[in-house]
Amino acid sequence: MLFEKPAELKYVIGFDLRDDFCQISYADRTMTGKEPVTFSLSPNEERFDIPTALYKAAGVNQWAAGADAAQMSSDGSGTYIPRLLSLAMEGSKVEVEGSSYEAAALLALFIRRCLALLEKVISPKEIQALMFTAREMDRKMIGILEDVRKRLDLRYAVYYESYASSFYNFLLMQPKILREPASFLCEYEKGGRLRITKLHFNIRTTPIVGYCDETVYPGIFAHDAEGKDSEFLSVLSRELTGLSYQSVFLIGNGFKGDWMKKSISYICRGRRAFMGNNLYSKGAAWGALFRIKMPEAAAGYFFLDKNKVQTNIGIRGYNRGELAACLFLEAGCNWYEVDRTQDIILEDSNEIRLLMRPLRGGETSEFLIRLDGLPVREGRTARIRLHFTMSAPDKLEILIEDMGFGDIFPSSGLKWEQQINL
Fold first, then answer.
1. Do residues 32 and 105 share a domain?
2. What gap in Å lies between CA 294 and CA 286, rounded to an integer?
3. CA 17 to CA 50: how far, in whole Å?
4. Among 175, 231, 306, 402, which has the highest number of CB atoms less than 10 A from its own CB?
5. Could you tell me if 296 and 191 lie in one domain?
């Protein structure tokens, strides 16, 4: 009998998911020093943007996705469905030729077709992990992507992160001289908003802590090249003044064309400048790699963005006979990934005193939880189960259950719910 040798799991994928277009980058995790490759719709061009759209041909069950959908929509005979992410976020039903489709199912079909494009360059059997990145990554977005993951029955690990995290991941894999003490990112899609992200590194801490500041401008509104240049230069001189930025990244199609003469001259005064539009998908690919194995170059760093839990949560109690602080929830994890269960034994009391220590410093504080109705049991015979989740970056939800104590004290069935504003 012949057995097929299992494929080596060596690729990680970064999927930049937007409402207008998507991008996919992939990296061979065995080649740590090399940048991820961004999939191009044309082998000889940098056509990275895949329109986030589907097209259904009239009268037949034939669907096209991405660039094919956009091209086929020009004949007007079928149904073109753009902005699939917005439709899924709204929970919409999409009516097509008298049939109703769940928007999440259509988004899943689109993502399936996008991942199928990669089969031209890598085998799906060799994929170890996929990281989705989006501008905002919250419970609603993750819920939709989890639904997509289940619909597609993906057999590899799937992770989620925000654009800020992807920018951080991208910078960690660049030479140190380009990121510390700070880097500057401008994002501008023609006719849209101008978004600025400043990523700072506090090199005085161990580990080195990275954190972001974000500013959004309504856009660039001048009609001629000289006016646009002056308008953008005004923003740059305001945002770059007084701080040391080693590098500036310009991404988005709004920066295409030869209109940034004075702006580029200003940017390049003591800084390195880069232009492109696939930074987020590359950063997401590296983010997937970090989840599998943290490269040595990134091990001494920590990223603190608005999705990170910023408070250590624990309790003071006995561990193997010695009084110690037991950590339940460690700061630095993404709030939407918090799902922790911990059993504790109460010491002749019906109270729990949680210890909360802010990651950015400050005094450790206590939060008292009284378990009303729970009988005080002597001799350390009250076993309590704590289940921690979070509904927002600063809202901790705790479900507490009386688990009893074996055959001596059956569970009372009592439960308590507590919300803590961190």
1. yes
2. 10
3. 10
4. 402
5. yes
Shared domain check, 88 and 123: yes
How many residues appear in the chain? 422
Instruction: Tell me the pLDDT band of 1, cut-offs 50, 70 and 90.
Output: very low
Alpha helices in 153-240, H assignment, sequence order: 163-172, 225-240
pTM here is 0.86
Tell me if 20 is assigned to some domain: yes
Same domain? 184 vs 113: no
Q: 104, 147 in Cβ contact below 8 A? A: yes
- Res 323: pLDDT: 64
What does the pLDDT look like over 271-305, one tens digit per residue? 999 998 999 999 999 999 999 988 887 888 988 88
146-174 pLDDT, tens digit per residue, is 999 999 999 899 999 999 999 999 999 99
Comparing CA positions, the residue from 386, 354, 385, 362 lying closest to residue 310 is 362
Query: Average pLDDT in the 222-246 region?
Result: 93
* CATH value at residue 112: 3.30.420.40
CATH number of the domain where residue 363 is located: 2.60.34.10
DSSP 27-75: EETT-TTSPPEEP-SSTTS----EES-EEE-TTSS-EEEHHHHHHHGGG
Pick the last residue of a domain from 161, 196, 220.
161
Using alpha carbons only, give the angle 41, 46, 50 rounded to the nearest 5 degrees: 40
Contact (CB, 8 A) for 15 and 160: no
Q: For 301-320, what is each residue's pLDDT tens digit?
A: 988 888 888 888 988 776 66
pLDDT of 2 over the 70 cut: no
